[in-house]
Write a structure and sequence with these properties.
Lipoprotein; 13% helix; mainly beta; 150 residues
């Protein structure tokens, strides 16, 4: 029985071979497909604004940047992806959550900092939130990379 099944299987393999390639089809309509645009945005220390009071619960930093390429069409039908570039030259997708630790006269302390973004037509906003809401010191300069696809 095994030999019969093996013979049938072998015969099917040879019968199912592909024939010659046919002629190339017509050219598709122009203008369809994926388009993309990439931009580097640098947020300096002076660009960061504090929402709330220093060290107030739920306080965070944000920075608004114009992005004229983020049209209504991209907003409605496209995709927006953002990365943050670390000081070691590595890009990380956002949101980026970093766990941190420090030491002072009172001992060790721990917190988490989160970089995130949102957008609207013509504008992108970057956020920096600290889990301990210690917002006495402004964040430094950060480099973001934004990719628009439609």
């Amino acid at each position: 029985m095994k030999k019969v099944l093996l013979s049938l299987f072998t015969a099917l393999i040879f019968i199912a071979c592909e024939g010659p390639m046919g002629p190339e089809g017509p050219q598709g309509e122009p203008g369809y497909g994926t388009n993309w645009y990439a931009k580097t945005i640098v947020v300096t220390q002076s660009d960061w604004k504090l929402m709330g009071e220093p060290n107030e619960l739920n306080s965070y930093y944000y920075a608004d940047k114009p992005l004229k390429e983020l049209t209504k069409f991209v907003y409605d039908d496209g995709t927006v992806i953002a990365y943050i570039e670390t000081d070691t030259g590595i890009k990380n997708g956002m949101p980026l959550v970093l766990h941190k630790a420090g030491k002072d006269d009172l001992g060790e302390f721990f917190w988490t900092q989160t970089f995130d973004f949102d957008f609207q037509t013509g504008n992108i906003r970057f956020y920096l939130t600290y889990s301990d809401f210690s917002t006495k010191i402004k964040p430094g300069t950060e480099t973001f990379h934004v990719v628009l696809m439609w």
